[in-house]
Structure formats: C-alpha cells, structure tokens
Design a protein that fits this description.
This protein is an alpha+beta fold. The chain is built from two helices and seven strands. The structure holds zinc ion (ZN).
Length: 109
C-alpha cells in the first residue's frame, strides 16, 4: 500500500498534521486548508457520527445552530484513512490504518 502525505482532497494542498484546536465550546483535532476547507481527525475511526457534527460546527466557526441548518448540498465532503504516526493518508481501505480525517468545505455560490 502506497501512502501519501496528508493532502486536501479539494485543492491538493499539502496539510500540516491535525492539531488540538478550540473554537468556542468546540474542541477538535484538525486544521484549516488555505482553500477554506476544514479537516478533523477521528483517531479511532469509530466515532464518525460525532466527529462529523464537530466538523460541521468547525466549518461554521463554532456556530452549532448554523451547522445543524446546513444541507448536504451546501458543502462538499471527503473522508480519508489517516495514519497518525506517519502523517500519511491512503485512499483505499487499509486495515492497518485506524484513524480517519473528515474534510468539509462550503460550496461557493
Ligand atoms: Zn484545500
């Protein structure tokens, strides 16, 4: 399995490893791409529902009401398998990789 560095699926920019961030009451591990996309790490890959809501809230800069009112047509999403130790992604299912990174970006109207 060939691994790739962490890269934004929307603009192909190379990204820094996810870091702990705090926005209002939201605490996540992730980052922001220069294209406006945000990414959030799910260390275990088993928490995707919860992390997804956190990611949406992060996308709305901590505004959970706005996050809940977004419709899927208003943003783009992508999920990548992510290895925390090497900061690499794999686009296909890889059983040795436990973490996932969720990417979200608001569509420009
Ligand atoms: Zn990007």
């Amino acid at each position: 399995m060939r691994r790739q560095p962490l890269q934004c699926p929307f603009c192909d920019n190379y990204l820094a490893p996810p870091i702990d961030l705090r926005i209002k009451s939201l605490e996540i591990t992730g980052g922001i791409c220069t294209c406006g996309a945000i990414y959030v790490l799910d260390r275990t890959g088993h928490n995707l529902g919860e992390i997804y809501l956190d990611a949406l809230t992060f996308l709305c800069r901590g505004d959970i009401d706005k996050a809940l009112s977004l419709t899927p047509g208003e943003y783009e999403e992508g999920t990548l398998d992510y290895d925390v130790h090497s900061n690499t992604i794999s686009r296909r299912e890889d059983r040795s990789v436990k973490g996932k990174v969720i990417f979200l970006r608001l569509k420009t109207k």
